[in-house]
Fold this protein.
Amino acid sequence: MSDEVTTTAATAAPPAFLRLNEGTNALRAGLGILLLVAVVALLAPWLAPGDPSALGPAADRLLPPSAAHPLGTDMLGRDALARLVHGSRVSLLAGWLSALVAIVLGTGVGLVAGTGPRWLDRLLMTFTDACLSFPRIFLILLLVSLTRPSLTLTMLVIGLTGWMGVARLVRAETLSLREREYVAAARGLGLSPWRVGTRHVLPSLWPTVIVATALRVGSAILTESFLSFLGLGAQEPTVSWGAMIQSGRPVLLEAWWLTAFPGLALALTVVGCNLLGDGLRGRLDPRRMKAARHE
Amino acid sequence: MNELLRLSGLTVGFAGAALPVLRGLDLELAEGEAVALVGASGSGKTLLARAALGLLPPEAWQQGQVNWRGVEARLAPGGWGALRGRGLTWLPQEPLSGLNPLLTVGAQVSEAARQHQGLGHQDALRFTVDLLAELQLPSPMELLYAWPHELSGGMRQRVLLAAALACGPELLIADEPTSNLDTTVQRDLLAVLDRARRARGMALLFITHDHDLVPLVADRCVEISDGRLVERVSGRHAHEGARAPHTVRGAAPRLVPGNAAPALSARALVVRHGAAESVPAVAGVDLDLWPGRSVGLVGESAAGKSSLARALAGHLRPSSGVVSVGCVAAGSDRGAAARAARRRVQMLFQDAGASLNPRQRVGDTLIEAAGAAHPGMVSRLLAEVGLDEALAMRHPHALSGGQRQRVALARCLATDPAVLIADEPTSALDGGTRARVLELLTRVMVTRGLAVLLVTHDLDTALSFCDELLVMHSGLIIERAPAASFALLRHPHSRRLLDCRPAALASTSGWRDAPAAPAPAGGRPFSGCPLAGACPLQNASCFKELPPLAELAPGRWLRCPPASELPPPQFIDTI
């Protein structure tokens, strides 16, 4: 054997920040954004410069951003920053609670359909497909217009119309999980169906459900703003980003700051949710977890 | 002879891993030479092959040289691309994923011929037909227009071989090309491979984990261990040195006590995977399993072995027939009573890793299986299967293959079962581990008085471990015999299974020239014997009705009237 040994890396190594688990960066960014929004929402009364509903003097109307009003004022002379900070509470609350309703409903239906007898599976999936085929936005408009619009109703309606995708996802995952050999082995041990479901199927479902939750929150926040924009969501004096955009719409050309900042906040929050979802998907995938351990 | 391929000081590792997988190994291959590269799983056989082809995965790094005809392959004119194909080429292990499902056989094979032999479209197709005929594929003209999914595993592997040969290579690197095939199919593939190699004067690097195959294909054998190569003097030597011990059982076959009741019995068991009129996977099987005795169920893939095993273990609902466990019919699959009956029959799976919940620690798995946590129970169970109790805190992914199978066995034992159904429990394990797991199974069976059904495609394993052999084909039991000697097997299909074992082939001269058996017809279109048409003993009555499983002598049953009239086979037992 010769003493000279040529060294060849099979490929040039990518830069360090790319070699990280791809999910990690998305996860960190998403988590950072959402933490920021959450802190702002929690500390809104202390962070906001004043009362979001306090009317200013007539001279203070539609002021552009300045030192006194960093994000300007609206048509009634109210401080836009104070309103933006308080609006984050509504957006986050509506997003998480309605996503929670959708996830609980969807997981329940999907799990029952995936583990139950075939006729029940057929029934539930037909029902899910029927709900999916119903134009969601009309249902929301109908329900909201039948009663007085309120934040609670909005959240409930968003949740009740958003569970179908989750149900289908969970059912598909359950069907594949229950064919695993360790589930067969657990049945062979004479465990009750309940125990097989809760101990051997459900834990492996969590990653799917968690990722679906993060992604659902983003879309629920968007839906809530959309409803508020139409005037069907939270009502005054509750501040919401959607309502802020709506109120700034007539003066869009004179006072761009009234729509731009709530829109930006909205976009940032939704991007944060989606980044979190993508990052979690990378992290919770068992195959990826295995790869991460081997590194 | 001229040197063809030379690896010198080849070191290959993965970024972040502590030790490289291959550590400075040297290998030389001359023109027309056939070398077998033997190694356990995970020893780096495939990595070596990929390094020789310049196809290392991107996360691997390499040191040392790969020389082709004295020139470093990386620096040769045209680089790797000019060498691959005409110089050296590759026969992959997995026949299905090796073929493009969207291209016909003719398109895939003739593509290689066009690319590397410079043939026109028509010439390439003619060349392909000749090649397919040379590899003894049936009706090559029609095969040109067949899709990969229409072919059996053995045919797919031969089509892949044809595509490799169509490049006109000087060296063929075959990576475990037969490890997913039945022994009968394996024999046919090895025969055509060897003939094609000799006809072309092609060099061969045959990668395998099975020492028994070495004398069949190679002139020379190198063994890979600890990332280095060890030269074996001859294929034959390696073959004898590494054989697993065959007398696992030691004592003579245990006999059925006169007054005992079977632990599990099945009567007229039928299992269908599809509609009621579909061809059954298990077509009416009667079977008794006795305490403290093991029965080996052997047969080719798709013979219905696994379906039978899973139906007996209660994992599959039989279409008809009765399975009774300890005189209690385990008919219904619902309710607490049925679940209690099911606990009496436990199953070991081929892939122990998949049969353990990845999120459950070993100790929790055992406690759950036992149904209650008694002090010391987990360590007692682990000790019974020869594992340290510290392993109770581990998750399955932190165990080796052999340890996983032991944990799976401990989980079975935790229910205090009467019957153990083991479906190829050792076929994913390497030689030494395999022997130790079989030894453990024997010990557990004897000390606990378990009734064991061992499903395997490996007749040697079945003979060494079991008391009785059952041979299955087309969902039927075609022969039942004590596992004292292979000489007791008389059915033509059993004989064929025996003759195709690599160990038997090595001692048979002229095995390469034996005709490939015609592919058995799919399903069973007529009411006769499923093997009629592909059987040397067939007569007119074989086609008319299904022969009964008739008792030849005490403990010996045979579903073949012509074979039962023959004198005992002239057969040299290789064991």
Q: What stands out?
A: Chain B touches chain A through 46 residues (CB under 8 Å). Chain B has two domains: 3-241, 264-344+417-565.
